[in-house]
C-alpha cells in the first residue's frame, strides 16, 4: 500500500525553516555540504561545515568552560538539564517535524524520539543528586577509604543519522549533570535537528546562567569527527554509528589513552518458541523488523523460529507485511517511511540478491515504491527472506528492513544460531515456557547487552543502560549506572589517627 502524494521539496524546505525559526535557530548557510530530506531525496539548504579553526576554537572554549562547570554543584548543573527538558517539551512538535524531514521517521516515532530526550533530561536531573561514591572498610585503624566521582572533561559526541537527536540527549544530559562539557559532531545527514537542539540548550544555559560553552556544535562530515577523535583535550569520545566507524575511532582514541564509549551496529534476533503467543509475537516482530524502515540499531534482522510453528508464523508475517502502508512519513497512515539514501536501497537490494544466491527465498516485499514520483528518494518494501543457514550475508548488518527467517529444532540450537554473529546488541525470545525464558536471559543464553522476553528487540526505555557486546562496541549509555563512563573515580585514603600505619603491615623507618 502507498498513501497520498509526497510533499514537495519546497514544502519541506519551508516547513523546516518555520520549525527552525520558531525554535530560534539560525542556519549557517554556506557551500560546505547540503542538508537534505529523504522524503524526496533532494537538497534543502547548503550549509557551512566547521573548519579546523572552528574545531580548535570550540575545543579551547569547551575546555575553559569545563573548569567553571566542574566546580558548579551537581544539583545546580541539574537545573540546566531541567530547563533543557522543559524547552524540549515546549518545542516537541517542531523538533519532531525536523526529525521527519531529515531522517524520514513517521510522526509517532519522531515524537517518540523527542519524548526520549525529555525522559533522559528528567533522569539526569534526578541523577544530579545521586552521583554516589562508596565508603569502603579500611584495614587500618583510624582510617577511612572512600571513592569519589569527579567530572571527566570535554566529551566529544559523534552521532548517527538514525537517532539524530536522542543519542545526543542521552550523552549530553548525563554528561552535563556529571560536570562535563560537550562538543557534538552530528551526522552530516541530519544537521538541522542538531541546530535546533543546540539552540535550545544555548537558551537553557542563558536562562539559568550556565557558561555558554558547556555545549558546542560542529557541523560537517567525518573529518570534523576525526579532529575530535585525535585531540587529547577530548577526554571521552562517545561515538554512535557503524562498526566500520568504531573500528577506526576506537584504536585512534586508545593510541592517545583517551576513553571511548562505542555504540555500533547490531544484528538482532528473536527466538520464537512453540509455546509463544503468536498474536503478540506477530505485532512485536513487525514493529521491530519493519518499523523505522529497518533503520534502528535494534531493528530485528533475524527470526529464529521453531520448525513446528514456522509455516504458521511466516504466513501471518507475510500477510502483515503485504499490507504495510509505505510512503510519506507526514501521512498519519504511513508506517514505513523512506530509507535515508538511494545508496541504502542499493545496499538492501545487494544483500537480498546475495541471500538468494546463498539459497534464500524471498517470501514478501523487496520492491521499490514511488520511484517515478521521487527518483532520488528510496522507498523500499520491507522484505522477508527465508534461509536454511546463517550464511555470510545473514551474519552482517544491512541497515534496511530485511528480516531473515531461520528454523530450529532444539533450544540449544536456537541459542547457538542466535549468538553466532559478530554483533551483540539486542535480542528477544517469545515463549510462555518460564524455563526457556530464564535460560535465554542467563549467562548461557543471549550474549547481547539487551535481552527481552515477549517483546521485540527495539524500543528500549531510557531507565536501563543501553548498549551491546562484541562488534557493537561494549559501551553503555542512558540509564542505570551508565553515568560512570562520564566521570573519573578517585580512591581516597583518609588517616584520622595520629599514627602512620602502612597497608599490608609494611614497616619502614
Ligand atoms: P556512520 O558510521 O556512517 O556515521 C556515524 C557518525 O560517525 C557520523 O557522524 C559520521 O560523520 C561519523 N564518522 C564516520 N567515520 C568516522 C571516523 N573515521 N572518525 C570520526 N567520525 C566518523 O553511521 P550511520 O550510517 O550514520 O548510522 C547507522 C549505523 O549506526 C548503523 O550501523 C547502526 O546500527 C548504528 N547505530 C548504533 C547505535 C547504538 O546505540 N548501538 C545507535 C544508532 C545507530
Automatic annotation (TrEMBL):
<keyword id="KW-0560">Oxidoreductase</keyword>
<protein>
    <recommendedName>
        <fullName>aldehyde dehydrogenase (NAD(+))</fullName>
        <ecNumber>1.2.1.3</ecNumber>
    </recommendedName>
</protein>
<dbReference type="Pfam" id="PF00171">
    <property type="entry name" value="Aldedh"/>
</dbReference>
<comment type="subunit">
    <text>Homotetramer.</text>
</comment>
<dbReference type="InterPro" id="IPR029510">
    <property type="entry name" value="Ald_DH_CS_GLU"/>
</dbReference>
<dbReference type="InterPro" id="IPR016162">
    <property type="entry name" value="Ald_DH_N"/>
</dbReference>
<comment type="similarity">
    <text>Belongs to the aldehyde dehydrogenase family.</text>
</comment>
<dbReference type="InterPro" id="IPR044638">
    <property type="entry name" value="ALDH7A1-like"/>
</dbReference>
<dbReference type="InterPro" id="IPR016163">
    <property type="entry name" value="Ald_DH_C"/>
</dbReference>
<keyword id="KW-0520">NAD</keyword>
<feature type="active site">
    <location>
        <position position="263"/>
    </location>
</feature>
<dbReference type="InterPro" id="IPR015590">
    <property type="entry name" value="Aldehyde_DH_dom"/>
</dbReference>
<feature type="domain" description="Aldehyde dehydrogenase">
    <location>
        <begin position="33"/>
        <end position="489"/>
    </location>
</feature>
<dbReference type="InterPro" id="IPR016161">
    <property type="entry name" value="Ald_DH/histidinol_DH"/>
</dbReference>
Amino acid at each position: 500500500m502507498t498513501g497520498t502524494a509526497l510533499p514537495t521539496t519546497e514544502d519541506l524546505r519551508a516547513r523546516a525553516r518555520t520549525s527552525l525559526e520558531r525554535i530560534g535557530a539560525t542556519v549557517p548557510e554556506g557551500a560546505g555540504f547540503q542538508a537534505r530530506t529523504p522524503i524526496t531525496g533532494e537538497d534543502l539548504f547548503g550549509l557551512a561545515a566547521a573548519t579546523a579553526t572552528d574545531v580548535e576554537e570550540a575545543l579551547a572554549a569547551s575546555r575553559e568552560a569545563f573548569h567553571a562547570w566542574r566546580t558548579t554543584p551537581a544539583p545546580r548543573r541539574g537545573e540546566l538539564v531541567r530547563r533543557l527538558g522543559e524547552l524540549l517539551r515546549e518545542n516537541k512538535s517542531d523538533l519532531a517535524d525536523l526529525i521527519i524531514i531529515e531522517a524520514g521517521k513517521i510522526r509517532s516515532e519522531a515524537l517518540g524520539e523527542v519524548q526520549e530526550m525529555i525522559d533522559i533530561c528528567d533522569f539526569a536531573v534526578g541523577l544530579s543528586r545521586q552521583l554516589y561514591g562508596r565508603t569502603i572498610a579500611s584495614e587500618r585503624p583510624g582510617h577511612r577509604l572512600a571513592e569519589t566521582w569527579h567530572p571527566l572533561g570535554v566529551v566529544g559526541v559523534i552521532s548517527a543519522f538514525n537517532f539524530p537527536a536522542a543519542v545526543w540527549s542521552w550523552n549530553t544530559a548525563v554528561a552535563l549533570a556529571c560536570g562535563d562539557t560537550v562538543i557534538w559532531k552530528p551526522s552530516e545527514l541530519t544537521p538541522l535537528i542538531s541546530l535546533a537542539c543546540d539552540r535550545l540548550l544555548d537558551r537553557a544555559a542563558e536562562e539559568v546562567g550556565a557558561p555558554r560553552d558547556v555545549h558546542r556544535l560542529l557541523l560537517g562530515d567525518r573529518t570534523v569527527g576525526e579532529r575530535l577523535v585525535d585531540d587529547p583535550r577530548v577526554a571521552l569520545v562517545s561515538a554512535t554509528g557503524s562498526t566500520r566507524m568504531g573500528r577506526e575511532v576506537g584504536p585512534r582514541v586508545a593510541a592517545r589513552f583517551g576513553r571511548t564509549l562505542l555504540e555500533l551496529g547490531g544484528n538482532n534476533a528473536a527466538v520464537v518458541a512453540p509455546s509463544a503467543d503468536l498474536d503478540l509475537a506477530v505485532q512485536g516482530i513487525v514493529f521491530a523488523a519493519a518499523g523505522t524502515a529497518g533503520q534502528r540499531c535494534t531493528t530485528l534482522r533475524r527470526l529464529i523460529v521453531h520448525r513446528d510453528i514456522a509455516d504458521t508464523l511466516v504466513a501471518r508475517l507475510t500477510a502483515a507485511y503485504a499490507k504495510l502502508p509505505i510512503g510519506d512519513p507526514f501521512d498519519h497512515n504511513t508506517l514505513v517511511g523512506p530509507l535515508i539514501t538511494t545508496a541504502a536501497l542499493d545496499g538492501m537490494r545487494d544483500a537480498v540478491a546475495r541471500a538468494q544466491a546463498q539459497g534464500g527465498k524471498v517470501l514478501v516485499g523487496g520492491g521499490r515504491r514511488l520511484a517515478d514520483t521521487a527518483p532520488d528518494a528510496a522507498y523500499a518494501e520491507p522484505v522477508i527472506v527465508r534461509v536454511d543457514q546463517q550464511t555470510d550475508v545473514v551474519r552482517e548488518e544491512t541497515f534496511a528492513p530485511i528480516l531473515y527467517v531461520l528454523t530450529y529444532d532444539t533450544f540449544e540450537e536456537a541459542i547457538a544460531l542466535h549468538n553466532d554473529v559478530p554483533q551483540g546488541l539486542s535480542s528477544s525470545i517469545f515463549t510462555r515456557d518460564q524455563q526457556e525464558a530464564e535460560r535465554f536471559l542467563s549467562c548461557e543464553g543471549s550474549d547481547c547487552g539487551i535481552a527481552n522476553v515477549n517483546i521485540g528487540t527495539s524500543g528500549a526505555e531510557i531507565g536501563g543502560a543501553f548498549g551491546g557486546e562484541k562488534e557493537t562496541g561494549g559501551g553503555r549509555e542512558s540509564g542505570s549506572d551508565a553515568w560512570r563512563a562520564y566521570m573519573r573515580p578517585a580512591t581516597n585514603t583518609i588517616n584520622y589517627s595520629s599514627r602512620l600505619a602502612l597497608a599490608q603491615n609494611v614497616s619502614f623507618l
